[in-house]
Write a sequence for this structure.
């Protein structure tokens, strides 16, 4: 029983971590059709922002929940204005430019912080279930993932902002004809996506620590999750995370963590062979 | 610019290649020769992406996967076989096979350009992480330890075919690498001039139209992707012979570098990526040494490469080749002569990316029967192909 509980928690944790690392990417890709290859570096930047603020004496929660998303969100808006704006509609070029950005960010952070691991210890202590112990912080991350998904759904479904965003996503010129500025919507969307990514980067920093090259550890999983999910931003990400996270954890328990990741990838490639448009390209098409 | 230009260009490239092949070892030191061998192996890698991305429109973000796979296959097989000739053949065959498998999933799944990039990227990253953790006895393949993070420092050097134990000297490896580079370059040119090559280019231009003409586009894309995989393997083989194999061969920076070479040199050309590769390698090496100089400690190769890539994508999307030919046109305007062929040849430098046909302007002719507007088809595809979301 205890073992089942801990296994369920592990699966929940793996799913939540996939949701978290993919969410910012899903917002940017789903709304703007922009593939941000610097996504991993946005996460890395969020981590550094949180750790730097914490080391400067800021409260850990403020550092993770406010400083990190604010920093990366602002950075995202600057990037959108300087680079992405010029490349709308040219997906491949955006990919290349953001890849260049990712290399430059790795280089810049290496110069500033050095190529060493920085870290902070995870708050909230540990949790005991029968004979097993696990970090309470991981439970907290599951809650955060659920809250972010719900909040995102509420905003998109029930607010004017969400309506404008969805409208622009469906038909930018129609939205423009109705008096919405697509350029502004895109800038804000990119900023929100970047801020979400920064928030997650800050939240994950206590678990994994940060190095300038940590982005590479996240980026593959994030992309494969978003693409497997398909067109619907929130439900697609959630369903794909659920599926891939479960496979990953099961294989990790049965074999090794690396085989877990290989299984995740193989599952995703087979999934895309069957459903080229992702899960929500076939099922739940009307979901958000 | 005239009809004779492609021919003159080919001869110039051949002469330059032969000059390097025979002239270079005469005066260069061994260290420089080994470095040049690395450059040549990278240049083959650049050609592998130039072929599948520039001509078939398949953007592989994970060409490093085939590079690494080729190197590792060679190292493992050579340690087990003793003789390296079979190992070298395997180092080309296995990546090709892997490309076939991966290509099957991607092309038969009709995965679009962008998803394809992400999947290839993911595959190479997963391979990187997998190979990275192969330290320890359980990961030995036969007599060959995979060595995890450290790679296989004892990668055997190629021996003369049939004579195990008689290893090639660094000069021989250099000659082999440069010889192969020349061979691959002209092999790609020849391949693109065949019927197969024309169809592949046509698929890049308009896949639906080619499919409607009755060609199975998936098969053609798969075939050219496999060729690219084999070339990646060959490049890994030569790299393994000039350095040794390690997991970094699979890493993201390697994949990134290949794309940077192609973009900087000029997408849709073969000579551009080779030149871009050599220029960027010289720059990277120089930046590496500059890093040690006091006052320049802030110079980070990643930072510089990243900025260069962003600047090229935004400002020089056609790459150096187009820049040079444009400049040449500006200095010496070509005399206008009548005839469709010459027209097409003249238009080409402006389009930069459409340098598809070694015989000059034939690309337009092969396509015109399908459209019925001979000679007017090419401008429609001018400039870089824009991806519609």
């Amino acid at each position: 029983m205890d073992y089942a509980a801990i296994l369920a928690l592990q699966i929940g944790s793996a799913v939540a971590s996939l949701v978290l690392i993919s969410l910012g990417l899903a917002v940017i890709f789903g709304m703007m059709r922009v593939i941000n290859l610097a996504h991993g570096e946005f996460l890395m930047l969020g981590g550094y922002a949180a750790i730097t603020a914490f080391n400067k004496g800021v409260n850990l929660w403020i550092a993770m929940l406010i400083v990190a998303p604010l920093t990366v969100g602002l950075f995202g808006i600057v990037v959108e204005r300087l680079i992405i704006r010029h490349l709308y509609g040219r997906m491949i070029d955006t990919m290349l430019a953001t890849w260049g950005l990712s290399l430059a960010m790795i280089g810049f952070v290496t110069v500033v912080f050095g190529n060493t691991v920085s870290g902070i210890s995870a708050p909230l202590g540990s949790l005991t279930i029968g004979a097993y112990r696990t970090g309470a912080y991981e439970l907290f991350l599951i809650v955060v993932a659920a809250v972010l998904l719900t909040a995102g759904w509420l905003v998109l479904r029930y607010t004017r902002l969400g309506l404008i965003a969805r409208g622009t996503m469906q038909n930018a010129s129609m939205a423009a004809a109705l008096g919405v500025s697509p350029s502004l919507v895109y800038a804000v969307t990119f900023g929100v996506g970047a801020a979400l990514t920064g928030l997650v980067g800050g939240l994950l920093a206590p678990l994994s620590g940060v190095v300038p090259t940590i982005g590479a550890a996240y980026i593959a999983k994030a992309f494969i999750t978003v693409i497997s999910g398909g067109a619907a931003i929130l439900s697609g990400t959630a369903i794909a995370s659920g599926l891939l996270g479960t496979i990953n954890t099961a294989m990790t328990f049965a074999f090794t963590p690396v085989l877990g990741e290989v299984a995740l990838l193989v599952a995703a490639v087979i999934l895309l062979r069957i459903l080229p448009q992702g899960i929500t390209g076939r099922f739940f098409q009307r979901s958000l | 610019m005239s009809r004779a230009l492609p021919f003159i260009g080919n001869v110039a490239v051949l002469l330059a290649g032969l000059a390097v092949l025979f002239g270079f070892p005469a005066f260069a030191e061994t260290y420089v020769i080994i470095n040049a061998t690395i450059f040549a192996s990278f240049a083959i890698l650049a050609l592998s992406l130039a072929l599948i991305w520039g001509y078939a429109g398949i953007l592989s973000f994970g060409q490093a996967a085939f590079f690494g796979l080729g190197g590792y296959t060679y190292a493992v097989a050579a340690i087990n076989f003793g003789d390296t000739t079979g190992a070298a053949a395997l180092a080309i065959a296995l990546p090709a096979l892997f490309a076939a498998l991966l290509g099957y999933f991607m092309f038969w799944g009709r995965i679009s350009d962008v998803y394809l990039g992400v999947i290839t990227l993911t595959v190479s990253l997963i391979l990187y992480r997998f190979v990275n953790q192969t330290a320890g006895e359980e990961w030995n393949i036969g007599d060959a330890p995979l060595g995890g993070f450290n790679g296989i420092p004892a990668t055997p050097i190629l021996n003369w075919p049939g004579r195990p134990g008689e290893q090639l000297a660094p000069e021989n490896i250099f000659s082999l690498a440069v010889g192969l580079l020349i061979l691959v370059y002209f092999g790609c040119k020849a391949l693109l001039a065949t019927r197969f090559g024309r169809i592949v280019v046509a698929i890049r231009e308009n896949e639906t139209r080619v499919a409607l003409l009755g060609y199975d586009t998936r098969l053609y894309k798969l075939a050219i992707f496999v060729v690219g995989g084999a070339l990646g393997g060959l490049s890994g083989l030569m790299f393994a012979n000039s350095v040794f194999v390690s997991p970094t061969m699979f890493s993201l920076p390697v994949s990134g570098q290949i794309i940077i070479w192609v973009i900087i040199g000029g997408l849709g050309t073969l000579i551009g990526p080779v030149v871009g590769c050599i220029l960027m390698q010289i720059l990277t090496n120089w930046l590496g040494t500059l890093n040690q100089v006091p006052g320049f400690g802030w110079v980070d190769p990643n930072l510089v490469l990243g900025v260069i890539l962003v600047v090229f994508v935004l400002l020089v999307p056609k790459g150096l080749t187009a820049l040079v030919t444009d400049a040449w046109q500006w200095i010496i305007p070509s005399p206008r002569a009548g005839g469709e062929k010459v027209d097409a040849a003249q238009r080409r430098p402006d389009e930069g990316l459409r340098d598809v046909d070694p015989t000059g302007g034939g690309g337009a002719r092969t396509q015109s029967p399908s459209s019925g507007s001979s000679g007017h088809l090419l401008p429609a595809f001018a400039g870089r192909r824009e991806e519609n979301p």
Summary: The longest helix of chain A spans residues 2-32. The beta strands of chain A are 126-129, 132-135. The interface with chain B takes residues 33, 35, 83, 86-87, 89-93, 95-97, 99-108, 110-111, 216, 219-220, 223-224, 227, 256, 258, 261-262, 265, 268-270, 272-274, 276 of chain A (CB under 8 Å). DSSP finds twelve helices and two strands in chain A.
